[in-house]
Amino acid sequence: MGKTLRIIVIVFMGLTAAMNILGGIGTVCAAFLTKKFPPMWALLDYQWLYQILMIVTILIGLGGVWALIRLIKGGKTAYRDAMILLVVGAVVAGIHMYASLALRGKAVPANVKFYINAITLLIFLLLRLPGIREQVRFSDPSDPGTRAAASGAAAIIVGLVVLSTTLWVGESHIYQGANWTHVLKIPLMASGLALLTLGALRLALDILPRRWPSIFARQKG
After folding, report:
1. Is the pTM here over 0.85, yes or no?
2. Domain boundaries, the chain
3. Chain segment 192-215, per-residue pLDDT in tens
């Protein structure tokens, strides 16, 4: 049970880090290219705010990747550091969502980023409940099998999210029949496929030696 919960938490942390990085990069049209996109003209006087939100969100996302690696390995302050990033991420995402609602009348996809941050933060808070707290200790190093399962699953799920970005974000980024997210289609496809491949290999390299130990033992011999 403890290992399963640990994997689930790590997957959500990876998803949150990815959403912050994607959300930060996706804010470039509102932060720096506002004049080129008519639907964003309402934000012209608030470019400074979206520039700050963009940079801070990307930094939070990169910090989330660092926290994810520490959670996978285990460490004395891994849980605490992840919690701090999640609180800051939820606050920044909340500001972004509120600003978009107030200035543009809609918050998509900023609201998705906020919900992911908030849900992951809630999951981390639930880990402090009696009974669960004793089973999931990120201060203790995780065993190789758990590390492989957690990192592999996180990479695969994040890869799928990245690959499908143009689908779940596209509706809010269509102007005169053009989908703005297609500008980043190639980087999204490349990074998404890379994550899927790495995740699958990570799981395979862990499962195969345990499934057919005699074969791998002979190869080592």
Report:
1. no
2. 2-220
3. 899 999 999 988 887 666 555 554
